[in-house]
Each structure stands twice: as structure tokens, then as C-alpha cells.
Design goal:
Helix content: under 10%
Order of helices and strands: HEEEEEEEEEEEEEEEEEE
Strand content: 25-35%
Structural class: mainly beta
Number of strands: 18
Oligomer: single chain
Number of domains: 2
Number of helices: 1
Distance between the termini: 60 Å
Length: 265
Amino acid sequence: MQYSTIFLSALAATGALAVPTRRPNNNFDSSITVILQNQNLEIGSQTQFAEGQRQAKSPVGSSGPFTTVELSLGPDVKQKDLRCQVLDKSNKPIVVVRGQNVDITFADGDKGEWTFKNGATEVNTIICDPAFKQGIASTSNNSQDGTAAGQTEDQDTDIRVTLTDGNLAAQTAFDEAGLKREIQEPVGSSGPFNSVELSVGADVQKQDLRCQILDNNGQPIIVKRGQNIDTTFADGNGGPWTFLKPAFSEVSKIICDPAFVKASA
């Protein structure tokens, strides 16, 4: 990969060019570095993290917009499958792509950088968390072409539930375009969280699709948006719902079901 002199100078000026420490003479190296780049704008950032704990940091030197991200682990890092996440200015996870892998968290694996799926994006926060797991698959397990039955690839049938506590965010995708009941565990983290938001694509047939979140006891979490209080929640372009009872909770399951209806007034 070639870099221009201007690009390298810009990185050096921000202190972002510091190369992750590699093992000299068998010295211990447990460095964890998240590298953000935008070669078109010749900007970059490198942010260091500690092992064994969840950390959230702002990118060092620049917030972008960036087009790629890479996680570099020193040879002595114990958790080789450690995953990190980048959040945009709205604190929503940025979807990244590497090969056939599409996810909202990313790993090292000695396979190089991940590309931002939706193009250049400013990064507000980087989170590295030992609890993060591989999440969104590149294709659905329920159909050979990766789309729900009756849908085409160019249709926007995207359905996502985003859980957040204001810093940590977990985004879970649903595969069946709202056509049948789906139950999933939150991707990446179970919280605790204090708000939830449902995003329904423009081509989803059931625009009033509702979902529900359960606590660790399998009980529905009561949520509130404006004057609406319910145990299920919809999109409606109304933004996030706040946890009401309990006000802060871990989430064990997310259920999206076309049979769910709004609670009676």
C-alpha cells in the first residue's frame, strides 16, 4: 500500500503515525492499536488501548471522516479474537466490511483493514471490549441468496435494533424483513443499556413492525417515547425509546414479531 509524502507528514504532525510497538529482541508486546485512515483526504489516526478491559476513546489527532479501520494486536496480546467498534457522531455503530464479513465490530486476524460500508464517516468514539463477539453475517442463514423470501437485493428491507447507554452501543440486524417472528440476542454486548431504537427499511412491508426486549429474567422491559409507554416499540421515525422500568438493564433477548401490536391507551 502506497502513501504520499503529504499523507505521512500529516500523520506525523498529529502524532498518529506512531507505529504499534513490535517485538524487539523478544521484548513483551501486548499493544492494541486501532488505525483509522482516509487516503483520499490524506488523514489518519492511531489510538492505543489496554488489554483485558472495556475502553472507549476518541480517535487521536482527528475524527475524520475516515473510510477504513484496522485493529493491530501485538504478539503477546492474550485475546487474539478481541473486537472493537467505531461509533459515528450520533453514537451509532459504523458498519464495516472485510471480504465477505459485514459487521459492526471488527477484529485483527492478520487480514488487514476493514472498509466503512457507507463511505467516509466521522468517528466520535472507538470502543474495544473483551465481550464483543462477531455479529452480523454477510448473508442470511435462512435463504441461499442472502435475502428474505420475496425480496430482492436492491430493496431496503433492513431491520435493526440499536441498544445504547449513551456510550456503548449494540446493533442487531434481523433477516426476515418483518415477515415472521425472530428472536435474537444482542450483538456484541448485553449491556446494561437505557434506550433502544428500531430502524425499519423503506421497503419493509410492515412499516408498523414492533419489537420487544427482555431482561435477564425473561421479562419485557417497559419503554417510553413521548407519551407512549409500552412493552413493545416501533420505528415511526420517532427516534429512540427510553427504558422506563427498569431504567437501566441488561438485555437477554430481542424479539421482532409482525403479530405485536401497540398497547391499548
